[in-house]
């Protein structure tokens, strides 16, 4: 492991000025649960580590006029115990329940999870169903981008070196059903083999009047699944219908990834997990 | 009837507990010396099979802070290691046989310099074709990994006419089972530190399971006299068999010998993954026959063990798998062939159970298949076939005592019956299936059909204080506590009064390896033997003082007293002084070697072990038929340990073994070349642990210390079979390859129609 300097700015302005000058040689560190692993493995060799974990500007979960704000520095433990999220983004809250382990959740942040751009990142499917925007700051000001534009490739984040993720703006949803599901090889500390998230509303006739869905760990980058949503919209969810949607989903997934050795498992497992997740709607 | 013991059977404070809780226990990486030791790093081949043409070390030597780069030619003695067969060089001389083979050893002032030196070393190789499966290695045109051929050894166990009996069987089952390569994952990666004593002795502290073996190997490696090397076991954070090999010790010895300066060698987790032994993956073809009542009659098996590039404990694994192929059941006829094959994979060695966990997966699946075939209850068919006193084993050994398998099965029964009647039907979830499975095992204590004695020394000083000297390495399982209890009980002392010197080759004699679940039984007996001798001189002397017969004397609170009247007594200090004055010894050596008869090379007949442990476990699992996820809800584990000297330790072993068994059953798989660290190796976490109900069965073993046998390895053996049988009951579809991971379970769910059944 190469030596590096550790920098802890007092506030966002200080952090942004530092990045303006040294951004190219700097790695931002929040909880460090991805960064430290990469440092040890020699995958990254920064001159500076800029610690943003204590910046007040990156904290907080609030319902605001422009949407539901989740600061980039919010930890997964904070997400798990948030009443605001329980109410307005229950799937996001749920993903924190099975995220890594308690020790990791206590330090790992949602900003780090998104910026690391792992296809297996657990917070991404819930963020996608809420049409999350990423709020970015640099000394030139603040801008807002859709999440899919930031997570531009597996482990590649479309952020310039000078920018920090301040937080996320989610569309809060009043829904009757929401969930996050993940398949791992063990009950904790498991990278998702498959993850998925949805939220939906059933109207008074029992029909699906609103449906949003996202899949994790299967495609290189997060994406929308309009055909699946369209198939379900306006219909009464039956077991049959859910299986139909599940099969459509796995077909579309294979169209994107092609058939690989892992498809033998993923094809049925995506269907299975989808059915399991949506079963409470039936 | 239990005598009222003072300490035996009591869960006393473990001898290592306070230091470990306070963080005082010094592991090899923590030991401080007066000056900082040099750092040793090993350069490894990175390719599986090649001739070494030339090793370039000049650039490495030019790096500041690098003192020496050693290669094979620097080894003054015999560059060949191995506890059973010697085939592994410390540093490769002419060729490399696996990607982990050590080629050069760097000694540097700092870790940084040492790592730079590793990057600066280059080796010219002539690549050789490599083989990665025993099938390929056994092919006629396969490249030779070792000069004598790719088959390292074979073990046959034969009795009766198998084919004739199969003809008469109502149920004949033939299947092939495969198990995975497994990493031990002890908490403390391998480490050691060494320095030169004032008299020129090479002193090495190491994380080890067998200091006296280390000593022998290093003396031979360096070609120095016995008294010039001293091995001391540092606090050791687990081993599970992998620290039976010489991991860092040889490198430390070599560098010390040449540099005469303190050196330290600490593996990273990645290096421990790459360079130390693994559990042998086994392929087992097994055919068994039973009559219409479910009585097992004949067994034929062919077992193939992939030992990787080196033998290590491979021959022991091969033999033990063959001898245990019947499981704890009586058969009339046996025909087992077990082969140990070299490949260019990482070398495989000892791991908790030596092939028994693998073979138990096969025999326990077979007996369940017979039960299904003949519509007999799984518990009942096991009980029907269970070994009992008077039974003859596959090797022709007639068991006489301490055959607790039936008691273990009976102890499971109430849990089993209530699980069937209540738990299995309790919750009805459309996509979850519940299954209850049973697994049983037997396990011979100690090495297979070879002498494996232990020794111990017990010393009393003139103040009456007692010290135990034992070569036995406590690697965290608690052997020092057990040996202390055995000694304290024999002399009527409390365990805190005993001083212990353990696992230091300068002061202790050989206790053999901490492996094969042998230390309680074998070293326990050696300690007891020494203690009995001391006890005898003390009581003999007390007769003079108390004027009653020797047999009416007992030990009580630091005295020898008249059994019927403890007031009439004499303290140990006065006895010690009187004995000493007469010139009689207060130091006694103990010895024990289980009574075994070597197995015949042609038919494996003989007496491989002095005694056997038995166990039966039940698993309750929930299978998610849509995703292949498994939840193990409960394991009930009944283990016959002879006598639980320290019941909490026994329970600890059972719970830990269960955890390891869950990993073996459901998730663990080391893929050579791919698996680098815990990041890409899945082993169970606390969240994967079910409720475990340990049940201790005590079927007294007359040859054991206070009736004790062993439990270290048995703890893990029945777990995977029980879980696999439970999955098979849940799905009506059996899995024949371990681990039963997501892919295999979902596939079984699809095959059995549980998944597609939902496809309307
Ligand atoms: C044992 C273990 C288990 C894990 N299990 C899971 C799991 O179950 N699910 C899962 O999704 N992940 C898991 N992870 C991965 C990791 O914990 C998560 O990705 C976590 O959310 C990263 O957050 P962090 O705060 O630790 O990020 P860091 O490691 O500090 O940073 C990660 C990346 O984000 C960048 N970054 C951080 N904050 C900002 C910011 N405000 N602006 C711009 N860039 C930023 C960093 O530069 C870096 O590139 C696991 C990791 C470990 C070590």
Report on the structure:
- The complex is a heterodimer of chains A (282) and B (760).
- Chain A is an alpha+beta fold.
- Chain A folds into three domains: 5-51, Uridine Diphospho-n-acetylenolpyruvylglucosamine Reductase, domain 2, CATH 3.30.43; 56-170, 2-Layer Sandwich (Uridine Diphospho-n-acetylenolpyruvylglucosamine Reductase, domain 3), CATH 3.30.465; 177-281, 2-Layer Sandwich (Enolase-like, domain 1), CATH 3.30.390.50.
- Helices cover 35% and strands 24% of the residues of chain A.
- Chain A contains twelve helices and 13 strands.
- Chain A has helices spanning 12-22, 35-41, 76-80, 83-88, 90-95, 102-105, 110-116, 124-129, 147-150, 226-232, 239-257, 263-278; strands spanning 5-7, 26-29, 48-51, 61-64, 67-71, 133-138, 141-146, 151-153, 156-157, 164-170, 177-183, 194-202, 208-216.
- Chain A has a five-stranded antiparallel β-sheet. Chain A has a three-stranded parallel β-sheet with strand order 1-3-2, with helices on one face.
- In chain A, a hairpin with a 5-residue loop joins strand 12 (194-202) and strand 13 (208-216).
- In chain A, helix 10 runs antiparallel to helix 11 (239-257) and helix 11 (239-257) packs antiparallel against helix 12 (263-278).
- Chain A starts with a strand and ends with a helix.
- The model of chain A has no long low-confidence stretch (mean pLDDT 96).
- By secondary structure, chain B is of the alpha+beta class.
- Chain B has three domains: 17-24 and 453-592, Aldehyde Oxidoreductase, domain 4 (2-Layer Sandwich); 31-128 and 185-275, Aldehyde oxidase/xanthine dehydrogenase, a/b hammerhead (Aldehyde Oxidoreductase, domain 3, Alpha-Beta Complex); 278-387 and 404-448 and 600-752, 2-Layer Sandwich (Aldehyde Oxidoreductase, domain 4).
- In chain B, 28% of the residues lie in helices and 25% in strands.
- Chain B is built from 18 helices and 28 strands.
- Chain B is globular and about 80 Å long.
- The mean pLDDT of chain B is 97.
- The chains are: A alpha+beta (282), B alpha+beta (760).
- Chain A binds chain B through residues 37, 101, 183, 185-190, 193, 239-240, 243, 264-265, 268-269, 271-273, 275-276, 279, and chain B through 430-431, 624-629, 631, 667, 679, 682-688, 741-743, 746-747, 750, 755, 758-760.
- Flavin-adenine dinucleotide is lined by residues 27-35, 37, 52, 58, 72, 99-100, 104, 108-109, 111-113, 115-116, 121-122, 164-165, 189 of chain A.
